[in-house]
Amino acid sequence: MKSHVLGYPRVGAKRELKKAIENYWGKNSNQEALELIAAEIRKQNWKKQQNAGIDFIPVNDFSFYDQVLDTTLLVGAVPERYQALLNNQNLSELDVYFAMARGLQTEDYDITAMEMTKWFDTNYHYIVPEFVKNQTFKNLSKKVINEYKEAVALGINAKPVLISPASYLLLGKEKEAGFDKLDLLDGLLEVYKQVIAELENLGATYIQIDEPFLALNLKDKEQFTIQKTHQFLNKEFPNLKFITATYFDDVLDNLELINQLPGAVLHIDLTRGDETQLLKILQSEFKNQSKVLSLGLVDGRNIWKNDFTKSIAQINKAKEVLGTDRVWVASSSSLLHVPVDLESEEKLDDELKSWLSFAAQKLDEVVLLKTLSTHPTHADLLAFENNKKDIQERRASGRIHKFHVKNRESFIEDKDLHRNSAFATRKIIQTKALQLPLYPTTTIGSFPQTPEVRSWRAKHKKGLISNQEYNTLLEQETKESIEFQEQVGLDVLVHGEFERNDMVEYFGEQLEGFAFTQFGWVQSYGTRCVKPPIIFGDVERLNPMTLEWTVFAQSLTNKYVKGMLTGPVTILQWSFVRDDQPRKTTCNQIALAIRDEVVDLEKAGIKIIQIDEPAIREGLPLKQAQWNDYLTWAVNAFKLSASGVNDETQIHTHMCYSEFNDIIKAIADMDADVITIECSRSQMELLDVFAEFNYPNEIGPGVYDIHSPRVPSTQEVVDLIEKAEKYIPKENIWINPDCGLKTRKWPETKKALEVMVNATQQIREKVEVSC
Ligand SMILES: CN1c2c(nc(N)[nH]c2=O)NC[C@@H]1CNc1ccc(C(=O)N[C@@H](CCC(=O)N[C@@H](CCC(=O)N[C@@H](CCC(=O)O)C(=O)O)C(=O)O)C(=O)O)cc1
Ligand SMILES: N[C@@H](CCS)C(=O)O
Ligand SMILES: [Zn+2]
């Protein structure tokens, strides 16, 4: 029996990599300094795993931005618009890599970034490969080779990790019509052959080939592509042992295919999907083969301590059928999605800590599960006893269960999920009550989180400034933002969210049943990280969470200030969620807390309230058969949070990073009076489905991209609004940016909003003339 993990977090325990990369971007350091820090992080990660006793240690799981973008460089799939950069002597391969991730705007270049999208159902984002009809591949980057050599030189039993050619193609996008990306496989396989041959020459024995699509529903051609990939690799390299790694769901839909695949090891995720997965694999043809089964028992997506009793029972089942040598113990997926080290946390109490396990602790769990299933020492057995005790104590803890919260959740009725009147009636009432102009202008909520604002919060947290000083500074910032919004001429204002560290963590910090960490950083995209709160118990709102700031902002202006809340599904999706009750129940508890906040905002005179749900699509299960069930409870949770108010109160929702084609009915069922969406990059094409569906409620299609500092021209925005008018009746159109402005700087924000308001004014004038 062997142990391994599929990947390890690369941000560093204190986000050292983030800081080093941002210093490099800011020209405060050079590539050599950045490479040194990166090498040190890799070394520490490998040594940590080696010291823990992990048998096969992943290499090439490190990345300066994203592992899919690394693969794009590996196979030389650099889109045409960056080709000139590769020939520029002043730019290194790393600079081109960062340009692909972030775009490049200098005196000489103005090149857009590659698209970024969600990595399956996680909060991690990858850079989408772009393919053209005459796409060619050639090995460009030596990253995996160099990192393999580096690991071997440090005495590490290195297991190179590569994204499978099949999954790589499936993750990408055809950028022109007339071909099928899967037909590019042969060319790609040749590059992999060259790279893997080099790894074999250097002494690699096991190679992990990530094939996450095996956990999804696959079409015939997709299955064929996967099959061809593995047949090719195993035929070309008969002496190498390939680990086919799947994760994030069960593989039962593809079991027949899996059993036909060659390879030394199959890795499955046993923390997600159908609970009968293991049994079904053990009963299948798999048992008659010689392949090893790697059991993904230690959760790579959540932070709860592993229940050893349960895991050992599963290991024993596998051992009974396959024998000890054909069973490995592993993390369910890469540990990229969990924080680095629980030991760094100084403020979590001991009881809570005894329930948790971060990446470093998960290494010990993997190793312990192996030793407990083979030759346990006295210390191992003692650790097992402690584990049983911790699991038992968590189950029984009085901190988790609140009868009145459970009771309230269990009495949710259908009437709680509906506004008093249908949208058509509400629209008449709200139009009369709010008296907004045609094409009302607004923003999505956050204004720039400047280094000063963040530093005030840091000082406040450290006790270096008092509550009063901190609040005064934030009040001043809010006041300036209201003044700016009035002066630029926006119709519906926001307070700016300056008091929030993150749109989820902020709520987690104020709700009962949540815990939050000091250093629990998880990479979201590039150098951007989040600290997902931990939902450990029944969720309850003891006090209003946003009321003071909203009411304060409203007191500064006669215009409407939108109340700004994060929705229940997004709070659930972007937190570490308790595993002892259905997600639906936890989501409803959060929805009730948000509902109370919505009602309090209304009582305090706030007329427009936005409940952000950017993660509703991301929460879709990977298998389509489960979509309906999820969408029903997710939409109901949103409606529960939104329906406690009178018809006059206008409820907005906001979604970014979403495609709506296959979920438009659910979006309409949410019945928000106004939905604002990210639209500018798709040049309003996202609206197609809203038009086709005859979406009845109001829509604010984003009219400029907030992910770039670029200020749009007035004409560009006018053109986009006119395009939107082709899809939506003008009485239903709102004008707003794609998303919040927290990652932007003030100068570009001010200019862009000025442009947005001017463009709207031009459109209004045209309408007046035509009337
Ligand atoms: C909309 N998005 C979000 C997602 N998930 C969320 N949970 N939140 C989101 O907003 N998923 C999809 C997208 C992803 N987008 C983003 C966008 C931006 C960020 C981001 O900017 N992250 C920041 C961290 C934000 C934060 O929590 N800041 C804290 C300060 C933390 C800090 O720097 N502390 C210092 C200590 C300072 C000191 O002591 O001097 C430290 O720890 O070293 C705050 O404002 O208080 C980032 O920096 O990455 C993320 C996702
Ligand atoms: N209200 C949030 C939504 C982000 S998706 C913001 O403006 O940042
Ligand atoms: Zn957004």
Automatic annotation (TrEMBL):
Its cofactor is Zn(2+). Residues 440-761 form the Cobalamin-independent methionine synthase MetE C-terminal/archaeal domain. GO terms for biological process: L-methionine biosynthetic process; methylation. Pfam families: Meth_synt_1, Meth_synt_2. Coiled coil: none annotated. Pathway: Amino-acid biosynthesis; L-methionine biosynthesis via de novo pathway; L-methionine from L-homocysteine (MetE route): step 1/1. L-homocysteine binds at I444, G445, S446, E497, D612. L-methionine binds at I444, G445, S446, E497, D612. Binds 1 zinc ion per subunit. It comes from the Bacteria. InterPro entries: Cbl-indep_Met_Synth_N (IPR013215), Cobalamin-indep_Met_synthase (IPR006276), Met_Synth_C/arc (IPR002629), UROD/MetE-like_sf (IPR038071). Its EC number is 2.1.1.14. Zn(2+) binds at H654, C656, E678, C739. Transmembrane segments: none annotated. 5-methyltetrahydropteroyltri-L-glutamate binds at R15, E16, L17, K18, K118, N123, R528, C529, W574, E618. It is an enzyme of class 2 (transferase). GO terms for molecular function: 5-methyltetrahydropteroyltriglutamate-homocysteine S-methyltransferase activity; zinc ion binding. Keywords: Amino-acid biosynthesis, Metal-binding, Methionine biosynthesis, Methyltransferase, Repeat, Transferase, Zinc. Residues 3-321 form the Cobalamin-independent methionine synthase MetE N-terminal domain. Zn(2+) 1 binds at H654, C656, D669, E678, C739. SUPFAM superfamilies: UROD/MetE-like. It catalyses: 5-methyltetrahydropteroyltri-L-glutamate + L-homocysteine = tetrahydropteroyltri-L-glutamate + L-methionine. Catalyzes the transfer of a methyl group from 5-methyltetrahydrofolate to homocysteine resulting in methionine formation. Belongs to the vitamin-B12 independent methionine synthase family. NCBIfam families: met_syn_B12ind, PRK05222.1. This is 5-methyltetrahydropteroyltriglutamate--homocysteine methyltransferase. It comes from Wenyingzhuangia fucanilytica. The lineage of its organism: Bacteria, Pseudomonadati, Bacteroidota, Flavobacteriia, Flavobacteriales.
